[in-house]
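R.M. (postdoc): so does anyone remember the format we settled on? I'll just put the C-alpha cells first.
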C-alpha cells in the first residue's frame, strides 16, 4: 500500500484553514494509502512549534523519510524541509502567493518578516515533484512568479465539512442574547493582517449603526460601538452557533488564496457580501453579492439590509455543495491521486 508521511501544523491550530485543508485531504487519501502524520508540536507556545519545525522534524526526516514513498508538506512555510527528505516523491501545498500584494501595499513589520521567510522557502519550490494549490487563481500566480510549469501544479479546492458537528453555546455569547430577531446580524471572520482590510470593515460598521456585527478574530484594534461584538479563540462548534444566528456574511479581504469562510457561510445559507476579487469570482461565481473595492459604506449598508428569499438561500447552499468531500473527490480525483 502507498505509504505517505504527512507533516501537519501544530495540533493547537486545529481550527485554522491550513489545518482543516490538510485534515480533509488526509481523510480522502486514507482510503487507499497508509498515512503517518507528524504534528509540529502540541502547545500554543511558539517555542515548541519552532523546536519541532526546525530541529525535531528535520532530524526525523533524515532518519525516516526514506521509509515513505511520498512526503507531504502542509504549507509553503515548510518548503525548506525538502533538503532533509529522502522520500521518492515530495509534495508541497501552497495556500496562497501574496508577494505581489505585499509588494504593492503598506504592510506591517511582522508581515514583512513573514514574507521574507516565505520567499526563502519558495526558493525550494522547484525541488518538489508536485505542488498542490486550492484554486486556479493561486495556480496562475505560483506558475507565473515562481517560474514553475503549470503541469506540475495541481488544483484541489478546500473541502467544507460540518457534518457530525453541532452548534455549541459559549458563555461568552451572553452579550448577544438581547439582539433583536428582527435586526440583521452580520458575521465576519478576520484578523489583524493588512490584506483583511479592517478599516473598510469598521467604516461599514459605523455607517450601519442599526445592524449588528459579530466580528471573530484575535484583533488588536477594536471599535467601541453598541452594534459590534467581538469574539476570539472559537471552536468549530462555536462558529456553527454564530453562523446559524447570523443573516449575512461580510468579507472585505483584499487578497485570499481561496476564501474558505465564504463557502462555510454559504453552507449555512447565509448571504455573502464580499469584494469583487479574482478569487471570489472563481469560487462564488454568481452566488454572492460582489462589491467594488471603492464602494461607499452607505451603499453596502443598503445591501446588508436587503432580505433574501428562500430561493436565493438555496442557491447559496448549492454553491457550497461544490466543495463537499464527495464532490471534490469526484471532480478532482486525478489531482488527488497525484499525492
Amino acid at each position: 500500500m502507498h505509504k505517505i508521511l504527512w507533516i501537519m501544523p501544530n495540533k493547537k491550530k486545529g481550527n485554522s484553514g491550513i489545518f482543516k485543508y490538510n485534515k480533509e485531504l488526509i481523510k480522502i487519501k486514507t482510503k487507499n494509502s497508509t498515512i503517518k502524520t507528524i504534528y509540529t508540536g502540541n502547545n500554543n507556545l511558539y517555542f515548541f512549534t519552532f523546536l519541532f519545525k526546525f530541529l525535531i522534524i528535520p532530524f526525523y526526516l533524515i532518519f525516516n523519510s526514506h521509509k515513505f514513498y511520498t512526503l507531504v508538506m502542509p504549507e509553503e512555510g515548510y518548503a525548506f524541509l525538502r533538503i532533509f527528505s529522502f522520500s521518492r516523491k515530495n509534495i508541497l501545498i501552497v495556500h496562497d502567493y501574496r508577494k505581489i500584494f505585499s509588494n504593492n501595499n503598506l504592510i506591517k513589520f511582522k508581515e514583512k518578516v513573514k514574507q521574507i521567510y516565505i520567499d526563502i522557502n519558495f526558493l525550494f519550490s522547484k525541488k518538489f515533484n508536485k505542488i498542490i494549490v486550492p484554486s486556479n487563481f493561486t495556480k496562475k500566480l505560483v506558475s507565473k512568479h515562481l517560474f514553475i510549469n503549470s503541469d506540475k501544479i495541481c488544483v484541489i479546492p478546500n473541502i467544507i465539512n460540518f457534518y457530525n458537528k453541532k452548534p455549541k453555546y459559549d458563555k461568552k455569547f451572553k452579550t448577544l442574547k438581547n439582539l433583536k430577531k428582527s435586526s440583521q446580524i452580520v458575521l465576519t471572520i478576520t484578523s489583524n493582517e493588512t490584506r483583511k482590510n479592517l478599516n473598510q470593515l469598521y467604516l461599514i460598521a459605523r455607517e450601519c449603526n442599526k445592524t449588528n456585527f459579530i466580528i471573530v478574530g484575535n484583533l488588536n484594534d477594536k471599535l467601541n460601538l453598541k452594534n459590534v461584538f467581538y469574539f476570539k479563540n472559537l471552536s468549530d462548534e462555536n462558529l456553527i452557533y454564530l453562523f446559524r444566528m447570523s443573516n449575512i456574511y461580510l468579507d472585505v479581504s483584499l487578497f485570499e488564496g481561496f476564501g474558505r469562510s465564504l463557502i462555510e457561510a454559504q453552507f449555512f445559507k447565509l448571504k455573502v457580501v464580499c469584494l469583487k476579487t479574482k478569487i471570489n469570482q472563481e469560487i462564488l461565481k454568481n452566488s454572492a453579492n460582489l462589491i467594488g473595492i471603492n464602494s461607499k459604506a452607505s451603499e453596502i449598508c443598503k445591501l446588508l439590509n436587503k432580505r433574501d428569499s428562500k430561493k436565493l438561500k438555496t442557491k447559496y447552499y448549492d454553491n457550497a455543495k461544490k466543495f463537499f468531500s464527495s464532490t471534490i473527490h469526484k471532480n478532482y480525483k486525478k489531482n488527488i491521486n497525484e499525492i
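R.M.: ...and that's the designed sequence above, right after the C-alpha cells. Also worth knowing: The mean pLDDT is 95. The first strand starts at residue 2 and ends at 8.
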